Amino acid sequence: MKEEQFLKLKEIVSNYLPDDVSSEAIQRESNFLEELNINSANLVDIVLDVEDAFDIMLENEDMDGMQTMADAQRIIQTKLEAK
Amino acid sequence: MEDRVVVTGMGVCAPNGIGLPEFERALQKGKSGIEFHSELEELKFSCQVAGKPNVDRIYLNKYFTKVQLKDLNATGVVYGVIAGTDAWEDAGLEQNMENPDWDSGVVFGTGILGVDKFREAIYQVDAGNVRRLGSTSVVQTMASGISAYLGGKLGCGNMVTTNSSACSTGTEAILMGYDRIKSKKATRMLVGSCSDSGPYVWGGFDAMRILPRNYNQNPKQASRPMSTTASGFVPGSGAGALVLESLESAKTRGAKIYAELLGGSVNSGGQRNGGSMTAPNSEAIVRCIQDAVAEAGIHPNQIDVINGHLTATSKDATEIDNWSKALKRSGADFPYINSFKGFFGHCLAAAGSIECVGALLQFRSKQIFGNLNCEDLHPEIEKKVDPSRIPQASLNIEPKIIAKASFGFGDVNTCLIFKSYTN
Questions:
Q1: Residue B79: CATH number of its domain
Q2: Number of structural domains, chain B?
Q3: Across the interface, do B65 and A15 touch by the CB < 8 Å criterion?
Q4: Could you give the 3-state DSSP secondary structure of residue B103?
Protein backbone atom coordinates (compact mmCIF):
# COMPACT_ATOMS: atom_id res chain seq x y z
CA MET A 1 0.00 0.00 0.00
CA LYS A 2 1.22 3.44 -0.83
CA GLU A 3 2.76 5.46 1.97
CA GLU A 4 0.27 8.25 1.32
CA GLN A 5 -2.65 5.90 1.86
CA PHE A 6 -1.13 4.44 5.01
CA LEU A 7 -0.72 7.92 6.45
CA LYS A 8 -4.31 8.76 5.60
CA LEU A 9 -5.52 5.63 7.38
CA LYS A 10 -3.22 6.28 10.32
CA GLU A 11 -4.69 9.76 10.72
CA ILE A 12 -8.22 8.36 10.79
CA VAL A 13 -7.36 5.66 13.29
CA SER A 14 -5.50 8.09 15.54
CA ASN A 15 -8.80 9.90 16.17
CA TYR A 16 -10.10 6.82 17.98
CA LEU A 17 -7.11 6.04 20.16
CA PRO A 18 -7.59 6.19 23.91
CA ASP A 19 -6.00 9.30 25.43
CA ASP A 20 -3.09 7.26 26.80
CA VAL A 21 -2.09 5.73 23.44
CA SER A 22 0.06 7.84 21.15
CA SER A 23 -0.43 7.82 17.40
CA GLU A 24 3.22 6.65 17.19
CA ALA A 25 1.87 3.28 18.29
CA ILE A 26 0.07 2.81 14.98
CA GLN A 27 2.15 0.46 12.85
CA ARG A 28 1.38 -1.24 9.55
CA GLU A 29 0.40 -4.47 11.36
CA SER A 30 -1.22 -3.07 14.55
CA ASN A 31 -4.30 -4.85 15.87
CA PHE A 32 -7.01 -2.25 16.56
CA LEU A 33 -8.52 -3.75 19.69
CA GLU A 34 -5.68 -5.70 21.23
CA GLU A 35 -2.68 -3.52 20.50
CA LEU A 36 -4.11 -0.05 20.03
CA ASN A 37 -6.79 -0.56 22.70
CA ILE A 38 -9.48 0.97 20.51
CA ASN A 39 -13.06 0.46 21.70
CA SER A 40 -14.70 -2.13 19.44
CA ALA A 41 -17.74 0.16 18.99
CA ASN A 42 -15.48 2.71 17.31
CA LEU A 43 -14.61 0.31 14.46
CA VAL A 44 -17.83 1.37 12.74
CA ASP A 45 -16.72 5.01 12.99
CA ILE A 46 -13.35 4.12 11.47
CA VAL A 47 -15.16 2.39 8.62
CA LEU A 48 -17.32 5.47 7.97
CA ASP A 49 -14.29 7.77 8.01
CA VAL A 50 -12.41 5.42 5.67
CA GLU A 51 -15.35 5.47 3.26
CA ASP A 52 -15.34 9.25 3.21
CA ALA A 53 -11.57 9.60 2.94
CA PHE A 54 -11.07 7.05 0.16
CA ASP A 55 -14.44 7.50 -1.54
CA ILE A 56 -15.25 3.80 -1.33
CA MET A 57 -18.00 1.78 0.29
CA LEU A 58 -17.32 -1.08 2.69
CA GLU A 59 -19.70 -3.98 3.22
CA ASN A 60 -20.54 -5.50 6.60
CA GLU A 61 -18.32 -8.47 5.74
CA ASP A 62 -15.42 -6.13 5.08
CA MET A 63 -15.81 -4.71 8.53
CA ASP A 64 -15.94 -8.16 10.12
CA GLY A 65 -12.58 -8.98 8.62
CA MET A 66 -10.97 -5.71 9.64
CA GLN A 67 -9.02 -6.52 12.79
CA THR A 68 -5.67 -4.91 12.02
CA MET A 69 -4.19 -2.00 10.15
CA ALA A 70 -2.97 -4.55 7.58
CA ASP A 71 -6.55 -5.86 7.08
CA ALA A 72 -7.80 -2.33 6.58
CA GLN A 73 -5.07 -1.49 4.10
CA ARG A 74 -5.77 -4.65 2.10
CA ILE A 75 -9.52 -3.99 2.01
CA ILE A 76 -9.03 -0.38 0.98
CA GLN A 77 -6.60 -1.42 -1.74
CA THR A 78 -9.04 -4.00 -3.12
CA LYS A 79 -11.87 -1.47 -3.16
CA LEU A 80 -9.75 1.16 -4.84
CA GLU A 81 -8.67 -1.29 -7.54
CA ALA A 82 -12.27 -2.30 -8.17
CA LYS A 83 -13.31 1.29 -8.77
CA MET B 1 -28.42 1.37 63.26
CA GLU B 2 -29.14 3.26 60.07
CA ASP B 3 -26.49 5.42 58.52
CA ARG B 4 -26.90 9.18 58.55
CA VAL B 5 -26.46 10.71 55.12
CA VAL B 6 -24.43 13.83 54.44
CA VAL B 7 -23.51 15.90 51.38
CA THR B 8 -19.75 15.95 50.83
CA GLY B 9 -19.45 17.30 47.30
CA MET B 10 -21.33 19.48 44.85
CA GLY B 11 -21.01 20.54 41.23
CA VAL B 12 -23.16 22.70 39.01
CA CYS B 13 -23.49 23.74 35.40
CA ALA B 14 -26.17 26.41 35.47
CA PRO B 15 -27.18 29.22 33.10
CA ASN B 16 -25.92 31.82 35.60
CA GLY B 17 -22.75 30.07 36.64
CA ILE B 18 -20.60 27.01 36.08
CA GLY B 19 -18.78 25.70 39.13
CA LEU B 20 -19.62 26.48 42.75
CA PRO B 21 -17.82 29.85 43.22
CA GLU B 22 -19.36 31.47 40.14
CA PHE B 23 -22.83 30.05 40.83
CA GLU B 24 -22.70 31.08 44.49
CA ARG B 25 -21.68 34.65 43.57
CA ALA B 26 -24.49 34.82 41.02
CA LEU B 27 -27.08 33.77 43.61
CA GLN B 28 -25.68 36.14 46.23
CA LYS B 29 -25.62 39.12 43.90
CA GLY B 30 -28.80 38.44 41.95
CA LYS B 31 -27.10 37.71 38.61
CA SER B 32 -29.49 36.31 36.03
CA GLY B 33 -28.49 33.76 33.41
CA ILE B 34 -31.51 34.28 31.19
CA GLU B 35 -30.78 35.60 27.71
CA PHE B 36 -32.42 36.28 24.39
CA HIS B 37 -31.68 33.53 21.84
CA SER B 38 -31.87 34.60 18.19
CA GLU B 39 -32.26 30.95 17.21
CA LEU B 40 -35.64 30.93 18.97
CA GLU B 41 -36.65 34.11 17.18
CA GLU B 42 -35.74 32.61 13.81
CA LEU B 43 -37.82 29.55 14.65
CA LYS B 44 -40.79 31.79 15.52
CA PHE B 45 -40.99 30.86 19.18
CA SER B 46 -43.32 33.04 21.23
CA CYS B 47 -40.83 32.90 24.09
CA GLN B 48 -37.38 33.74 22.77
CA VAL B 49 -35.60 33.92 26.11
CA ALA B 50 -34.07 30.95 27.87
CA GLY B 51 -31.43 29.82 30.34
CA LYS B 52 -28.47 28.00 28.87
CA PRO B 53 -25.09 27.36 30.53
CA ASN B 54 -22.22 28.95 28.65
CA VAL B 55 -19.92 25.96 28.22
CA ASP B 56 -17.99 27.52 25.31
CA ARG B 57 -15.29 28.67 27.69
CA ILE B 58 -15.03 25.35 29.53
CA TYR B 59 -12.07 23.13 28.69
CA LEU B 60 -14.01 19.97 27.86
CA ASN B 61 -10.92 17.75 27.61
CA LYS B 62 -10.90 17.84 31.40
CA TYR B 63 -14.23 16.02 31.35
CA PHE B 64 -14.22 13.86 28.22
CA THR B 65 -11.71 11.76 26.34
CA LYS B 66 -10.73 12.84 22.87
CA VAL B 67 -12.80 10.00 21.38
CA GLN B 68 -15.87 10.96 23.45
CA LEU B 69 -15.64 14.57 22.29
CA LYS B 70 -15.68 13.53 18.65
CA ASP B 71 -19.24 13.90 17.35
CA LEU B 72 -20.57 14.67 20.86
CA ASN B 73 -23.84 16.50 20.27
CA ALA B 74 -25.78 16.05 23.50
CA THR B 75 -25.83 19.16 25.66
CA GLY B 76 -27.34 17.32 28.62
CA VAL B 77 -24.41 14.92 28.65
CA VAL B 78 -21.95 17.83 28.59
CA TYR B 79 -23.69 19.63 31.48
CA GLY B 80 -24.17 16.45 33.51
CA VAL B 81 -20.60 15.24 33.14
CA ILE B 82 -19.26 18.68 34.10
CA ALA B 83 -21.46 18.89 37.21
CA GLY B 84 -20.97 15.25 38.20
CA THR B 85 -17.20 15.22 37.74
CA ASP B 86 -16.85 18.50 39.62
CA ALA B 87 -18.96 17.18 42.51
CA TRP B 88 -16.82 14.06 42.76
CA GLU B 89 -13.64 16.13 42.76
CA ASP B 90 -15.15 18.60 45.24
CA ALA B 91 -15.80 15.68 47.58
CA GLY B 92 -12.10 14.87 47.46
CA LEU B 93 -12.73 11.54 45.74
CA GLU B 94 -10.48 9.95 43.13
CA GLN B 95 -11.56 8.55 39.80
CA ASN B 96 -11.13 4.80 40.16
CA MET B 97 -8.87 3.95 37.28
CA GLU B 98 -8.03 0.30 37.96
CA ASN B 99 -10.99 -1.36 39.63
CA PRO B 100 -14.57 -0.27 40.20
CA ASP B 101 -15.52 1.06 43.61
CA TRP B 102 -18.30 -1.37 44.54
CA ASP B 103 -19.60 0.94 47.26
CA SER B 104 -20.10 4.00 45.03
CA GLY B 105 -23.04 4.43 42.69
CA VAL B 106 -24.79 6.97 40.50
CA VAL B 107 -28.40 8.09 40.22
CA PHE B 108 -28.41 10.82 37.61
CA GLY B 109 -31.75 11.70 36.08
CA THR B 110 -32.88 13.39 32.92
CA GLY B 111 -36.07 14.07 31.01
CA ILE B 112 -34.82 13.45 27.50
CA LEU B 113 -31.19 13.16 26.49
CA GLY B 114 -29.18 14.02 23.42
CA VAL B 115 -32.01 15.62 21.50
CA ASP B 116 -29.69 17.23 18.96
CA LYS B 117 -27.95 13.90 18.40
CA PHE B 118 -31.33 12.25 17.97
CA ARG B 119 -32.27 14.86 15.39
CA GLU B 120 -29.09 14.04 13.45
CA ALA B 121 -30.04 10.37 13.60
CA ILE B 122 -33.58 10.99 12.41
CA TYR B 123 -32.32 12.82 9.31
CA GLN B 124 -29.90 9.98 8.53
CA VAL B 125 -32.49 7.26 9.04
CA ASP B 126 -35.14 9.03 6.97
CA ALA B 127 -32.62 9.43 4.15
CA GLY B 128 -31.97 5.68 4.16
CA ASN B 129 -28.53 6.17 5.68
CA VAL B 130 -28.91 4.20 8.89
CA ARG B 131 -25.45 2.68 8.36
CA ARG B 132 -23.97 6.19 8.59
CA LEU B 133 -25.19 6.86 12.16
CA GLY B 134 -21.87 6.03 13.75
CA SER B 135 -21.30 4.29 17.06
CA THR B 136 -22.47 6.91 19.57
CA SER B 137 -26.04 7.54 18.48
CA VAL B 138 -27.32 5.16 21.13
CA VAL B 139 -25.18 6.19 24.09
CA GLN B 140 -25.79 9.89 23.52
CA THR B 141 -29.56 9.49 23.29
CA MET B 142 -30.42 6.72 25.75
CA ALA B 143 -31.83 8.30 28.90
CA SER B 144 -29.30 6.45 31.04
CA GLY B 145 -26.48 7.81 28.88
CA ILE B 146 -25.74 10.42 31.51
CA SER B 147 -25.36 7.98 34.40
CA ALA B 148 -23.39 5.69 32.08
CA TYR B 149 -20.92 8.42 31.11
CA LEU B 150 -20.44 9.36 34.77
CA GLY B 151 -20.33 5.83 36.13
CA GLY B 152 -17.70 4.91 33.57
CA LYS B 153 -15.61 8.00 34.12
CA LEU B 154 -15.53 7.58 37.88
CA GLY B 155 -15.46 3.79 37.99
CA CYS B 156 -18.59 3.33 40.10
CA GLY B 157 -19.46 -0.30 40.79
CA ASN B 158 -22.68 0.11 42.77
CA MET B 159 -26.07 0.94 41.23
CA VAL B 160 -25.65 3.20 38.18
CA THR B 161 -28.99 4.39 36.87
CA THR B 162 -31.10 7.24 35.58
CA ASN B 163 -34.45 8.29 36.98
CA SER B 164 -37.06 10.38 35.23
CA SER B 165 -39.98 12.20 36.78
CA ALA B 166 -40.24 15.41 34.77
CA CYS B 167 -39.44 18.52 36.79
CA SER B 168 -39.17 16.48 39.97
CA THR B 169 -36.31 14.38 38.53
CA GLY B 170 -33.33 16.05 40.21
CA THR B 171 -34.83 16.14 43.67
CA GLU B 172 -36.05 12.58 43.30
CA ALA B 173 -32.55 11.39 42.29
CA ILE B 174 -31.20 12.79 45.55
CA LEU B 175 -33.82 10.94 47.55
CA MET B 176 -33.08 7.70 45.67
CA GLY B 177 -29.39 7.99 46.51
CA TYR B 178 -30.26 8.79 50.11
CA ASP B 179 -32.40 5.64 50.37
CA ARG B 180 -29.57 3.54 48.93
CA ILE B 181 -27.10 4.76 51.55
CA LYS B 182 -29.64 4.71 54.36
CA SER B 183 -30.35 1.05 53.67
CA LYS B 184 -26.60 0.34 53.64
CA LYS B 185 -26.56 -0.81 50.04
CA ALA B 186 -24.04 1.88 49.13
CA THR B 187 -21.58 4.15 50.89
CA ARG B 188 -21.45 6.99 48.37
CA MET B 189 -23.89 8.02 45.67
CA LEU B 190 -23.34 10.64 43.02
CA VAL B 191 -26.83 12.05 42.52
CA GLY B 192 -28.26 14.78 40.35
CA SER B 193 -29.80 15.44 36.98
CA CYS B 194 -29.33 17.19 33.67
CA SER B 195 -31.50 18.68 30.98
CA ASP B 196 -30.65 19.41 27.34
CA SER B 197 -30.81 22.90 25.86
CA GLY B 198 -32.47 23.98 22.69
CA PRO B 199 -35.59 24.44 20.64
CA TYR B 200 -36.46 20.74 20.40
CA VAL B 201 -36.69 20.49 24.19
CA TRP B 202 -38.37 23.84 24.77
CA GLY B 203 -40.70 23.85 21.74
CA GLY B 204 -43.35 21.66 23.30
CA PHE B 205 -43.70 24.06 26.23
CA ASP B 206 -43.90 27.04 23.89
CA ALA B 207 -46.70 25.22 22.05
CA MET B 208 -48.57 24.79 25.34
CA ARG B 209 -48.56 28.62 25.70
CA ILE B 210 -47.13 28.37 29.20
CA LEU B 211 -43.98 30.43 28.57
CA PRO B 212 -43.78 34.24 28.90
CA ARG B 213 -44.22 36.01 25.57
CA ASN B 214 -43.68 39.66 26.48
CA TYR B 215 -40.09 39.71 27.70
CA ASN B 216 -38.11 39.01 24.54
CA GLN B 217 -36.58 42.47 24.85
CA ASN B 218 -36.09 42.17 28.61
CA PRO B 219 -34.80 38.66 29.25
CA LYS B 220 -33.57 39.37 32.78
CA GLN B 221 -37.09 40.33 33.84
CA ALA B 222 -38.82 37.39 32.17
CA SER B 223 -38.75 34.87 35.01
CA ARG B 224 -40.92 36.24 37.82
CA PRO B 225 -41.71 33.66 40.52
CA MET B 226 -44.29 34.85 43.07
CA SER B 227 -44.89 38.06 41.14
CA THR B 228 -48.26 39.58 40.22
CA THR B 229 -46.94 39.84 36.67
CA ALA B 230 -45.65 36.26 36.45
CA SER B 231 -46.71 35.04 33.05
CA GLY B 232 -45.12 31.64 32.65
CA PHE B 233 -41.83 29.88 33.21
CA VAL B 234 -38.69 30.63 31.26
CA PRO B 235 -37.24 27.40 29.85
CA GLY B 236 -33.79 26.52 31.13
CA SER B 237 -31.21 23.75 31.05
CA GLY B 238 -28.07 22.57 32.79
CA ALA B 239 -27.13 20.13 35.51
CA GLY B 240 -26.57 19.89 39.23
CA ALA B 241 -24.83 17.15 41.20
CA LEU B 242 -24.30 16.16 44.82
CA VAL B 243 -22.14 13.51 46.40
CA LEU B 244 -24.13 11.84 49.16
CA GLU B 245 -22.21 9.76 51.63
CA SER B 246 -22.74 7.93 54.88
CA LEU B 247 -21.69 10.10 57.81
CA GLU B 248 -19.37 7.32 58.93
CA SER B 249 -17.53 7.29 55.60
CA ALA B 250 -17.35 11.07 55.44
CA LYS B 251 -15.84 11.22 58.93
CA THR B 252 -13.38 8.43 58.19
CA ARG B 253 -12.17 10.29 55.10
CA GLY B 254 -12.12 13.61 56.91
CA ALA B 255 -14.33 15.01 54.17
CA LYS B 256 -15.89 18.45 54.41
CA ILE B 257 -19.62 18.28 54.97
CA TYR B 258 -22.01 20.75 53.38
CA ALA B 259 -25.14 19.49 55.12
CA GLU B 260 -26.97 16.49 56.42
CA LEU B 261 -29.90 15.16 54.44
CA LEU B 262 -32.34 14.39 57.23
CA GLY B 263 -34.96 12.78 55.03
CA GLY B 264 -37.47 13.30 52.32
CA SER B 265 -40.59 12.10 50.67
CA VAL B 266 -41.82 11.31 47.19
CA ASN B 267 -45.42 10.80 46.13
CA SER B 268 -47.98 11.39 43.42
CA GLY B 269 -51.38 13.01 43.42
CA GLY B 270 -52.66 10.26 41.16
CA GLN B 271 -53.97 12.90 38.75
CA ARG B 272 -57.11 13.07 40.90
CA ASN B 273 -58.82 15.86 42.85
CA GLY B 274 -57.40 18.76 40.89
CA GLY B 275 -54.29 16.89 39.85
CA SER B 276 -53.75 16.13 36.18
CA MET B 277 -50.98 15.34 33.77
CA THR B 278 -49.88 18.97 34.04
CA ALA B 279 -51.29 20.23 37.35
CA PRO B 280 -50.63 19.08 40.90
CA ASN B 281 -53.15 17.66 43.33
CA SER B 282 -52.66 20.03 46.28
CA GLU B 283 -53.50 17.37 48.83
CA ALA B 284 -50.58 15.29 47.54
CA ILE B 285 -48.20 18.22 47.86
CA VAL B 286 -49.27 18.89 51.43
CA ARG B 287 -48.81 15.21 52.27
CA CYS B 288 -45.44 15.08 50.56
CA ILE B 289 -44.15 18.02 52.59
CA GLN B 290 -45.59 16.64 55.83
CA ASP B 291 -44.16 13.18 55.19
CA ALA B 292 -40.73 14.68 54.53
CA VAL B 293 -40.87 16.64 57.78
CA ALA B 294 -41.93 13.51 59.66
CA GLU B 295 -39.22 11.38 58.03
CA ALA B 296 -36.65 14.04 58.94
CA GLY B 297 -37.78 13.92 62.56
CA ILE B 298 -38.11 17.67 62.92
CA HIS B 299 -40.89 20.03 63.91
CA PRO B 300 -42.25 22.20 61.06
CA ASN B 301 -41.32 25.28 63.10
CA GLN B 302 -37.65 24.37 62.77
CA ILE B 303 -37.60 25.06 59.03
CA ASP B 304 -35.83 28.38 58.42
CA VAL B 305 -35.87 28.45 54.66
CA ILE B 306 -37.94 26.96 51.88
CA ASN B 307 -36.54 26.73 48.40
CA GLY B 308 -39.73 26.33 46.45
CA HIS B 309 -40.58 24.84 43.10
CA LEU B 310 -42.24 28.20 42.22
CA THR B 311 -41.93 28.31 38.44
CA ALA B 312 -43.48 31.76 37.83
CA THR B 313 -46.95 30.74 36.79
CA SER B 314 -50.35 31.33 38.36
CA LYS B 315 -49.74 28.13 40.34
CA ASP B 316 -47.16 29.85 42.56
CA ALA B 317 -49.88 31.12 44.89
CA THR B 318 -51.28 27.60 45.18
CA GLU B 319 -47.85 26.24 46.05
CA ILE B 320 -47.44 28.85 48.80
CA ASP B 321 -50.85 27.93 50.13
CA ASN B 322 -49.82 24.26 50.19
CA TRP B 323 -46.61 24.98 52.10
CA SER B 324 -48.61 27.06 54.55
CA LYS B 325 -51.13 24.28 55.10
CA ALA B 326 -48.48 21.58 55.36
CA LEU B 327 -46.34 23.44 57.90
CA LYS B 328 -49.26 25.24 59.59
CA ARG B 329 -47.32 28.48 59.36
CA SER B 330 -48.27 31.78 57.77
CA GLY B 331 -47.73 35.53 57.88
CA ALA B 332 -44.54 36.59 59.66
CA ASP B 333 -44.25 33.07 61.09
CA PHE B 334 -43.80 31.59 57.61
CA PRO B 335 -40.21 30.46 56.87
CA TYR B 336 -38.09 32.54 54.50
CA ILE B 337 -38.84 31.39 50.99
CA ASN B 338 -36.98 31.76 47.73
CA SER B 339 -37.13 30.49 44.19
CA PHE B 340 -33.98 30.37 42.09
CA LYS B 341 -35.98 30.17 38.87
CA GLY B 342 -35.92 33.98 38.74
CA PHE B 343 -32.15 33.61 38.09
CA PHE B 344 -32.07 30.91 35.43
CA GLY B 345 -35.60 29.88 34.59
CA HIS B 346 -36.99 26.41 34.92
CA CYS B 347 -34.26 23.92 34.11
CA LEU B 348 -36.88 21.13 33.80
CA ALA B 349 -35.34 17.76 34.73
CA ALA B 350 -32.24 19.60 35.99
CA ALA B 351 -34.22 22.08 38.10
CA GLY B 352 -34.28 20.09 41.33
CA SER B 353 -30.59 19.28 41.40
CA ILE B 354 -29.35 22.75 40.39
CA GLU B 355 -31.68 24.33 42.94
CA CYS B 356 -30.57 21.93 45.69
CA VAL B 357 -26.96 22.92 45.05
CA GLY B 358 -28.03 26.56 45.35
CA ALA B 359 -30.08 25.88 48.47
CA LEU B 360 -27.14 24.15 50.16
CA LEU B 361 -24.73 26.94 49.26
CA GLN B 362 -26.81 29.05 51.65
CA PHE B 363 -25.38 27.00 54.53
CA ARG B 364 -21.84 27.60 53.33
CA SER B 365 -22.25 31.31 52.72
CA LYS B 366 -24.33 31.77 55.88
CA GLN B 367 -26.93 33.63 53.87
CA ILE B 368 -30.46 33.33 52.60
CA PHE B 369 -30.35 34.18 48.93
CA GLY B 370 -32.83 36.74 47.64
CA ASN B 371 -35.43 36.46 44.92
CA LEU B 372 -35.43 38.18 41.55
CA ASN B 373 -38.36 39.91 39.89
CA CYS B 374 -40.99 39.67 42.61
CA GLU B 375 -41.04 43.29 43.80
CA ASP B 376 -44.72 43.14 42.85
CA LEU B 377 -45.70 40.19 45.03
CA HIS B 378 -48.82 38.34 43.99
CA PRO B 379 -51.68 39.50 46.26
CA GLU B 380 -52.75 35.91 47.02
CA ILE B 381 -49.21 35.19 48.21
CA GLU B 382 -49.09 38.33 50.33
CA LYS B 383 -52.27 37.18 52.05
CA LYS B 384 -50.46 34.05 53.25
CA VAL B 385 -46.91 35.22 53.75
CA ASP B 386 -45.52 38.42 55.20
CA PRO B 387 -43.41 40.14 52.51
CA SER B 388 -40.46 40.22 54.92
CA ARG B 389 -40.23 36.44 54.47
CA ILE B 390 -39.70 36.79 50.72
CA PRO B 391 -36.31 38.52 50.52
CA GLN B 392 -35.63 40.71 47.49
CA ALA B 393 -31.88 40.55 48.16
CA SER B 394 -29.65 38.12 50.03
CA LEU B 395 -29.89 38.27 53.82
CA ASN B 396 -27.01 37.63 56.18
CA ILE B 397 -28.93 35.07 58.17
CA GLU B 398 -27.44 31.62 58.72
CA PRO B 399 -30.02 28.93 57.98
CA LYS B 400 -30.19 25.75 60.05
CA ILE B 401 -32.85 23.75 58.25
CA ILE B 402 -33.84 24.11 54.61
CA ALA B 403 -36.78 22.42 52.91
CA LYS B 404 -36.66 21.89 49.16
CA ALA B 405 -39.46 20.62 46.97
CA SER B 406 -39.96 19.95 43.28
CA PHE B 407 -43.14 19.05 41.45
CA GLY B 408 -43.46 17.59 37.99
CA PHE B 409 -45.77 16.77 35.11
CA GLY B 410 -47.53 13.52 35.82
CA ASP B 411 -48.54 14.93 39.22
CA VAL B 412 -45.34 13.77 40.96
CA ASN B 413 -43.74 15.42 43.98
CA THR B 414 -40.52 15.26 45.97
CA CYS B 415 -39.57 17.10 49.15
CA LEU B 416 -36.22 17.01 50.95
CA ILE B 417 -35.14 18.34 54.35
CA PHE B 418 -31.50 19.43 54.77
CA LYS B 419 -29.82 20.47 58.02
CA SER B 420 -26.60 22.41 58.49
CA TYR B 421 -23.85 20.20 59.81
CA THR B 422 -21.64 20.99 62.76
CA ASN B 423 -19.16 18.61 64.29
A1: 3.40.47.10
A2: 1
A3: no
A4: coil
